[in-house]
Design a protein that fits this description.
The structure holds 2 protein chains of 2 kinds. By secondary structure, chain A is α/β, with parallel strands linked by helices. In chain A, about 35% of the residues lie in helices and about 25% in strands. In chain A, helix 6 packs parallel to helix 7. Chain A is globular, with a radius of gyration of 17 Å. Chain B is an all-alpha fold. In chain B, strand 1 and strand 2 form a beta hairpin. The longest helix of chain B has about 30 residues. Classes of the chains: A alpha/beta, B mainly alpha.
Chain lengths: ~240, ~290
């Protein structure tokens, strides 16, 4: 089963290794068109390794990964981005000496052409327009996260992978960032949202996967899930 | 200061243009790819011998041949990075030093086999003997002026490439954080290769100026590297205009040293280098 042309993601029997250590065990995960899928789990549950494997940036992976009918395992990261899968990496990973505008433009240049332009990113995040000529290192953490999100969106992805966009940010800033997600969905972009903050993450998701020690411990819909059950599968035991 | 010393200082500053042309490629590979290319001087010597053969064969001026060779020099730098240097970039500094050291030895011995140990010098034509009379005081060679001007043009062009174009922004992005670049789909290997292609073009231009200005032989590369390296460190790592000033400081030191005693020429260069290193360890124009 390789996945249909309009299916954003189909991962089957994925294993990711770092040397002898297996960070991800036999994960199966799908994202349907237009869906926001939340992946929750504690530190070290394999969430970031999972996203890296999708982008073909893991040290060693086994299993199958298809996006929009394409076999990502045979593609390079630039090809994957050009095909419409973009990553907002953990820890933002901006280019600190480049200006805000330069950071954003790189996303546009490496991605697909589409309806999301620099002007639209500035309209979603007006503070970035004000600070467009400043080096990214001078921005606050929240503003840097906006640039990281904008950089990925400017690649005009069909599937957006967000790795802990709330990490280390004040709740009010996290709220501003999460307010953008419905706008992103309105563009027809499907999403995987990785978070440690379960409440925030489940509030926006259509479905969720809980990872525990590298494997899927629970799959469901936020409205059907009981908080105690989630916590048990989140922490194990 | 006597008129004679002033004259020597001006001539020395112009030699700085030649040193800057050697050094600007080294500055770029240090600043962007963050590696020390031990074979940089030998690559310039290799390009000089190629220019000698081709300009002899075609009966053209080495400057004209060098201009036609620029695309080839870009391709050579690009593929040198892709096929060889990329394999050792990033792990630690040592493998890159060993590989480029090996490359340096291969180039020197290859040239020795092909051309023998004799020294050579290319002829640039009328431009070499023409001079400009300045302020009614001293004669400045037209060729040193042209080389200095070339250095300014090359550095200005690199400055525009790096800071005013989108490809330059991508090169600087990779210099900032190659792992982050790879993660978001901006291939660091490809950008390094493009940067090394540009270095190849500066090597070709430096070779055309050097081979007309001074003698060269297959073993001269390492001493060229030393001067280039001093110019880069004096100017401040990663600062292209600093490299030009660094080259000028070395040239002036050499000429004023030679004024005192012929044997002081090279010693004065290294003493000034050490002095600046002690007073300003990060160079004259350190990058933030």
């Amino acid at each position: 089963m390789s996945g249909a042309d309009d299916e954003p993601l189909r991962v089957e029997k994925l294993n990711v290794y770092y040397g002898q250590f297996r960070a991800v065990h036999d994960i199966d995960l799908t994202v349907a068109a237009g869906e926001i899928v939340s992946v929750i789990g504690a530190n070290g549950a394999g969430k970031t390794s999972f996203l890296k494997a999708i982008m073909q940036q893991a040290d060693r992976a086994e299993g199958s990964i298809h996006a929009f009918g394409l076999n990502l395992r045979t593609m390079s990261t630039p090809q994957i981005v050009a095909a419409g899968v973009a990553l907002v990496p953990e820890g933002r990973r901006l280019f600190p000496s480049l200006t805000v505008a330069e950071n954003l433009r790189i996303g546009w240049e490496i991605g697909r052409r589409g309806s999301i332009t620099l002007d639209r990113i500035y309209s979603w995040f007006p503070v970035l327009a004000e600070r467009r000529d400043q080096p990214a290192r001078r921005l606050s953490g929240g503003q840097q996260q906006m640039v990281a999100l904008g950089r990925a969106l400017l690649a005009n992805p069909r599937l957006l992978l967000c790795d802990e966009i709330s990490l280390g940010l004040a709740p009010v800033v996290v709220g501003q960032l999460y307010d953008i997600l419905p706008k992103i969905r309105a563009e027809g972009i499907s999403m995987i949202v990785i978070e440690q903050d379960v409440v925030r993450s489940l509030a926006v998701a259509d479905r969720f996967y809980c990872f525990l020690e590298g494997a899927v411990s629970l799959v469901g819909r936020p409205q059907d899930a009981n908080r105690d059950v989630i916590m048990r599968h989140y922490f194990g035991g | 200061m006597t008129i004679d010393m002033l004259n020597q200082a001006i001539q020395g500053a112009l030699i700085g243009g030649l040193y800057a042309l050697f050094a600007v490629g080294l500055s770029l590979s240090l600043g962007v790819i963050r590696f020390i290319n031990i074979a940089h001087g030998d690559l310039i010597v290799l390009a000089s011998f190629l220019l000698m053969s081709l300009s002899g064969l075609l009966g053209l001026s080495p400057f004209v041949v060098a201009l036609f060779m620029l695309p080839l020099a870009f391709a050579a730098g690009y593929w040198l990075q892709r096929l060889l240097l990329q394999r050792v970039v990033g792990e630690s500094v040592l493998p890159v030093i060993l590989v480029t050291f090996g490359l340096s030895i291969m180039i020197q011995n290859g040239l020795l086999q092909a051309y023998g140990p004799d020294t050579h010098k290319l002829h640039g034509g009328q431009i070499e003997v023409a001079s400009v009379h300045m302020f009614g005081l001293f004669d400045i060679g037209f060729f040193p002026l042209a080389v200095f001007f070339t250095a300014i043009v090359v550095i200005a062009a690199l400055d525009i490439l790096l800071y005013r174009t989108s490809i330059g922004a991508r090169i600087r992005a990779v210099a900032d954080d190659p792992a982050a670049a790879d993660l978001i789909g901006l291939s660091s290997g490809r950008m390094y290769a493009i940067a090394m292609g540009v270095v190849g073009m500066t090597v070709m231009l430096a070779a055309s100026c050097m081979s007309v200005w001074t003698n060269f032989d297959p073993a001269i590369g390492p001493s060229r590297l030393l001067t280039a390296f001093e110019a880069v460190v004096l100017g401040g790592l990663g600062s292209l205009w600093g490299t030009l000033v660094g080259g000028m400081v070395l040239g002036i030191a050499q000429n004023l040293g030679a004024q005192m005693d012929a044997s002081w020429q090279i010693l004065a260069q290294h003493l000034i280098f050490l002095l600046v290193l002690v007073l300003r360890p990060r160079g004259l124009f350190p990058k933030a």
